[in-house]
Amino acid sequence: MHQMTMQMELPLEDRGEAPNVRRSGEACPAAQGNERSGNDPLMERVVGRDNLFAALKRVRKNKGSPGIDGMRVDELADYLRENWERIRATLLDGSYRPSAVRRQEIPKSGGGVRPLGIPTVLDRFIQQAILQVLQPIFDPTFSPHSYGFRPGRRAHDAVCQAQRYVQSGRRWVVDVDLEKFFDRVNHDVLMSRLAKRIGDGRLLRVIRRYLEAGVLAEGVVVERHEGTPQGGPLSPLLANVLLDEVDQALERSGHTFVRYADDCNVYVRSKRAGERVMEHLRGLYAKLRLRVNEDKSAVARAWDRKFLGYSFWVAPGREVKRRVAPKALDGFKERIRQITSRNGGRSLPKVVEELRAYLLGWKAYFRLADTPGVFRALDQWIARRLRLVQLKQWKRGRTAYREMRTLGTPEWLARKAARFTRNWWRLSSHGALNTALPGKLFEKMGLPRLAPH
């Protein structure tokens, strides 16, 4: 067997992708059955040369911040050259112990924060190597109704499938939100599901230790007895392993549903049917020691709920269309306000540069929305916010009147607008500002348009 220390210096670009790991956009293969891996030496496959190179390549591509040891992604290869023999031996004899994860909180679009557990770069590398071995075993047997964190499947696929269910006449949705799902995963329940398919005890022990790795918060390592921290490569697969049991039960009952991670929507034809399904789901989740968040879950009309940032509406002719959910729109506007804050002290090109990075990602995700009018209105609103930024800059130099004249605004129009210089928001929509700072100017600076050209 080739040893990692002898090969780590090879350029990763010369290596192929990990065997059996499908690229995004490729079709999922047919299910391979529920056979247990028996005594298959899975850990030897985890530490196999090709698998490790693919894992290192993926960790480098994903980047990410350091864990509790402070090691950066670009330092990992050198560390492995010096220490891989020792690490490999502990993985093969089942004694490897992961480091604690670093707690990090990120703001949620609807308010509050989402806790993440950031593993060390080394542990991310090992988790990725494990994922590449386990995913081809588990993924083919997952329900076709599951879309989250699976090769060749995207959130857009889930949204389009939900739309088809609503279009077919299932206008009621059982929208289930699980209470702090990633924090409440029961380790014993999850490990029992994994043990049905994994026969390598060493690998099971390492996974269990990843689940139980402590969390470093405010300088103190806190033990964890439940939950799988968001932030590691392995957590999404473990979540799908656990929740697939509910998927299979819903399939056996003949329900039409879409699940993306812990978001599950079941589409039915009546409110009464939805209430029966909701009660059934409470029981299914209880068997996994999970709880339904009653405040955020509901049986409702499909267009009154959101799914993955989208919601639906019925156009003339009864065709079901997609739109950006109101809550997602509110989050978008709040982010734009933050970027274009008048107190930032940044130049207009710098603000446009930051906006561009955010808008390109947002536009790519919400490109399925059938609402060009909404996007045109957002484009106009963003341009107005940028004019407000420029007014702030002008105040530091010459007067707004002189700047407007310099940019080609007719004298009579500039004088008329100058009366509103104490009300910047009103002035930002004045015809004089539109003439001096047209939308095409922002586009030349690199600002993307949301509405189709």
UniProtKB/TrEMBL annotation:
State the coiled-coil residue ranges: none
Reaction equation(s) it catalyzes: DNA(n) + a 2'-deoxyribonucleoside 5'-triphosphate = DNA(n+1) + diphosphate
Q: Name one GO molecular function term.
A: metal ion binding
The record's listing under Gene3D superfamilies reads:
3.30.70.270
Q: One biological-process term from Gene Ontology?
A: defense response to virus
EC number(s) from the headed UniProt entry: 2.7.7.49
Top EC class, one word: transferase
- What segment(s) does the record annotate as region Disordered? 1-42
* Alphabetical keyword list: Antiviral defense, Magnesium, Metal-binding, Nucleotidyltransferase, RNA-directed DNA polymerase, Transferase
PROSITE patterns per the UniProt record, alphabetical? RT_POL
Residue ranges constituting the Reverse transcriptase domain according to the UniProt record: 85-312
Which Pfam families does the protein's record reference? Answer: GIIM, RVT_1
At the top level of its lineage, which domain of life is listed? Bacteria
Q: Which SUPFAM superfamilies match?
A: DNA/RNA polymerases
InterPro entries attached to this UniProt entry: DNA/RNA_pol_sf, Group_II_RT_mat, GrpII_Intron_Splice-Mob/Def, Mat_intron_G2, Rev_trsase/Diguanyl_cyclase, Reverse_transcriptase_msDNA, RT_dom
Q: Which family does it belong to?
A: Belongs to the bacterial reverse transcriptase family.
Q: Tell me the protein's name.
A: RNA-directed DNA polymerase
Origin organism of this chain?
A: uncultured Gemmatimonadota bacterium
